[in-house]
Design goal:
single chain; alpha/beta; 2 domains; Nucleotidyltransferase, domain 5; six-stranded mixed beta sheet; 12 strands
Length: about 375
């Protein structure tokens, strides 16, 4: 099984990406960082080094492991799915060692939260790979996603609805920001997790590969899942008459952007940060929904790994667009892992400041002792 190469090109990411050479020591500049995310469908890794207010990606890896395959029916992670995930994590470990990673964070999300044997699998991962994964709550997952893509919020906007369509769940974050303070962190109004993702929705369809005739059932399933959760409207949040946009961080949204840009094959540099009129995005969804599986397989921006899951993703995206209609959607080929990296770097900075503070106190005590002597 080949890895997804969408994030393979190194490059600077973050607000105000600065190419200047960073200081040789202190805080975030002391380390090489790694963020490892084990989701319902994919295992993904980013290895990075700090660059002032941004970071440069040194290496990346993404492999479709379908950890949540069969989970909806059996309530457990299957042996085959666990094996695929373990093999992918072992490749991540090799990459981390090769780059001399000194700080890392490894998280597991919806599939491990939902599975009866999720915690047992995390223990197995630790034994077989040496990596200690943490099963994080949806709210923490959503906050990482916001941190990773907040630089893409329109500076003129007063609010945004951030969504991340995963394999087993969809995370939603409603936030506001002050256009007069574009560098300030946004104010998160509400976070919600809807227990539907591309894998769990796909598994409700009996026939695979999924053909266009199944799309109405997929859309009905997505609508029902969103309807079963208490979610705020833009009016209830006071955002109905204010400049607000959608911000999507998932593979579904990046694929739709690639089609919108008429790319022969996926190009992260052109997709990340792209704007689409929401009506254009919905027109592309309708176009994809009419494609046969063979058509999707042959389409450069969809390809093998997404050919069967893009239709469930489109249904979830359309359900979101119906509930929170805005004029535009911005596309982020960044999110959870980037947020994890930034959180680790901020923590390292805090530790660096404490070290310098302790060093300064020791220096003053030694100086005072000499004077007393």
């Amino acid at each position: 099984m080949k890895e997804d190469v969408r994030h393979s090109a190194p490059g600077a990411i973050g607000a105000g990406a600065d190419k200047r050479k960073p200081p040789a020591s202190g805080g975030r500049f002391r380390h090489v960082f790694a963020a490892l995310d084990l989701g319902t469908n994919n295992c993904r890794l980013l290895v990075a080094r700090a660059e002032h207010e941004a970071f440069t990606v040194l290496d990346s890896f993404s492999r479709t492991v379908r950890l949540g395959e069969g989970l909806a029916q059996n309530g457990e992670l299957s042996e085959k799915a666990q094996g695929r995930a373990i093999e992918a994590v072992k490749i991540c470990v090799q990459k981390m060692r090769r780059h001399g990673v000194s700080r890392s964070c490894a998280i597991a999300t919806a599939a491990c939260r939902a599975a009866r044997n999720g915690r047992a699998f995390i223990q197995r991962l630790k034994r077989e790979t040496g990596i200690a994964f943490e099963i994080i709550a949806p709210a923490e997952e959503a906050k990482f996603a916001v941190a990773g893509c907040q630089a893409l919020i329109d500076e003129a906007a007063e609010g945004a609805v951030v969504f991340d369509i995963g394999g087993g769940s969809t995370e939603l974050i409603w936030l506001t920001r002050d256009p007069e303070r574009p560098r300030a962190k946004p104010n998160i109004l509400k976070v919600a997790s809807v227990p539907i993702g591309v894998v769990t929705l796909a598994e409700r369809i009996a026939d695979h590969p999924i053909e266009p005739s199944a799309y109405p059932a997929l859309l009905a399933g997505a609508d029902a899942a969103f309807g079963a959760v208490e979610l705020p409207t833009l009016a209830e949040l006071g955002l109905i008459d204010r400049p607000v946009h959608l911000l999507g961080t998932s593979g579904t949204v990046t694929t739709i952007a690639g089609i919108h840009l008429d790319l022969p094959r996926y190009d992260r540099a052109r997709v990340d940060g792209a704007w689409l009129p929401l009506e254009e995005a919905r027109a592309i969804i309708a176009r994809v929904a009419r494609m046969t599986f063979a058509d999707r397989l042959a389409f450069g921006c969809i390809g093998k790994d997404r050919a069967d899951l893009i239709l469930p993703g489109c249904a979830i995206f359309e359900a979101i667009a119906r509930r929170w209609p805005t004029a535009r959607v911005r596309v982020a080929d960044r999110g959870l892992r980037e947020g994890m990296l930034l959180a680790m770097m901020e923590k390292a900075d805090g530790e660096g400041r404490r070290r310098r503070s302790r060093g300064g106190r020791r220096h003053r005590r030694r100086k005072k002792a000499k004077v007393s002597a």
